[in-house]
Specification:
2 copies of one chain form a homodimer. In chain A, 72% of the residues lie in helices and 1% in strands. Chain A is mostly helical. The two termini of chain A are 27 Å apart. The relative contact order of chain A is 0.12.
């Protein structure tokens, strides 16, 4: 498809992902309760920003978005598993996620843990079984290697641990950045780099994409912190003020609200600068930057 | 190495695994608490039966055991993650594992969940980064595809769910077998099939190896059930009688102890028969069958 504007493009691919995700689960030979639990959280909505980053990167290199569909779904499975586990009573103990009861509130803790485990494991099945003729074995292995690093102890899991260890402490900026780069940034960066890998990007282009991803990821998190203070509960689907309540170090708490907004703009500007250096058709990737900076949920 | 007997062989490769496992974690750039938690459970001992099955299969095809070392470690990481999550308060709520405090008793529930997540994710990193010149990209992808299926919703995770759903119920034999084939059998089978894949085994040989693995897995579980009644607590490192206490359906409860022992012998005999049909040097794989049937821990 060739939508005429970014808004149509992003809502089209959100629907593509919403539709595709459960199809990877429904046909599995598994007890129905675990399939229900996995699909419940996969289908709980969400912005699908990670798939959108992947698709827009493929588009930037002139590739078909559909090549990346299994990767996009694998990343959403990993993102979803991380939310299920983060919401558990022993972690953030959240009852609501996007305005709906969290997985363990519906299915119980044991099934929620296993639904997360199942989604994480199955994501690697999707990638190893990609069958598009343009996707080589070497590409699949590079993607699995990068995804397991980005989501694992050196990536998202490490960031979650650092986040927990930083609770009720006044963290300096570099520790706050470590947390965000790992907890959310690495998986966002994977999506962008995956688009580059599938497009056979040059090394110098991958390096610039990684810079772009770093700044996008931090911008995303700063806006998250800002929304937790200035956001609208109904739009967000969760209560605001939880960071203050939980005594978390945030960009506004470290830098003041004005300082946080300047930092947000700095990372958006740097992201756009890195993006231009990649030397591809960057129109929609730049739109995503602007969307992140101005999002209200 | 070329040890002169199976006992030397199995204890040599247990040491190889015990030594290799932490080396995949210590060098990671991660918060030290999560590395400690992962290494704690990886180093908690265990029989290393899964690596041994893999190595003995490679040997059966005349291959070097060392080719499979990253796979063996990946499987132990997955096995270990499953034990950490199974022991959690919302699952089996076990305080002891192999005579030592369980992961969440030492590190708390949140870190235990994340240590499991980290081990599961990192296992795929090991396989995608195998560098032995005899291991092709196609082999690595076949291994990742099979492992993610064997450990995921259609394998181990599905079996764990079925096991939980079967608690406090009188299950018929076919449901008990479903649980064991998935909860423990699929990962044991992966090890054997991985040896076949790395040895470029023929399709008919892989089919026979799968039959062999199915029977080995069931024999393993029946002996587990028997040991829970007739075993020695000190040898097992855990209390006996827990199945009766938890009102679990077991082979002895369904078939009587005599019937369970006959069933064990049946599966050992069938395993050996299938093994002979593979047409390889089966000496040590047959020894493992006998070890499983007569093990006391």
């Amino acid at each position: 498809m060739n939508p005429t504007d970014f808004s149509t493009y992003s809502s089209y691919y959100k629907r593509v992902i919403d539709h595709a995700l459960p199809t990877y689960i429904t046909g599995l030979t598994s007890p129905s309760i675990i399939k229900d639990a996995m699909i419940y959280s996969l289908s709980a909505g969400g912005k699908r920003i990670r798939p959108l980053l992947l698709f827009a990167t493929l588009r930037a290199f002139g590739k078909e978005e559909e090549i990346g569909l299994p990767i996009a779904c694998a990343v959403e499975m990993i993102h979803t598993y991380s939310l299920i586990h983060d919401d558990l009573p022993s972690m953030d103990n959240d009852d609501l996620r996007r305005g709906k009861p969290t997985n363990h509130k519906v299915y119980g803790e044991a099934i929620a843990i296993l639904a997360g485990d199942g989604l994480l494991t199955h994501s690697f099945h999707l990638i190893s079984n990609m069958s598009h003729p343009l996707v080589t074995s070497e590409m699949k292995l590079a993607l699995i290697s990068l995804l397991s690093k980005s989501a694992g102890p050196e990536g998202m899991v490490g960031g979650q641990v650092a986040d927990m260890e930083g609770e009720n402490k006044n963290l300096p900026l570099h520790e706050l950045e470590y947390i965000h780069i790992h907890k959310t940034g690495k998986l966002l960066a994977f999506c962008i780099l995956a688009g580059g890998i599938l497009s056979s990007a040059e090394e110098h282009q991958l390096a610039k994409l990684e810079e772009f991803a770093l700044h996008v990821g931090l911008a995303f998190q700063i806006q998250d912190d800002i929304l937790d203070i200035e956001g609208n509960e109904e739009m967000l689907g969760k209560p605001v003020g939880s960071d203050v309540h939980n005594q978390k170090t945030t960009y506004p708490s470290l830098l003041t609200m004005q300082g946080a907004k300047e930092k947000l703009q700095y990372h958006i500007d740097e992201a756009v600068r890195s993006l231009h250096d990649v030397g591809v058709n960057h129109d929609y990737l730049e739109e995503i930057c602007n969307m992140i900076a101005s999002r209200n949920h």
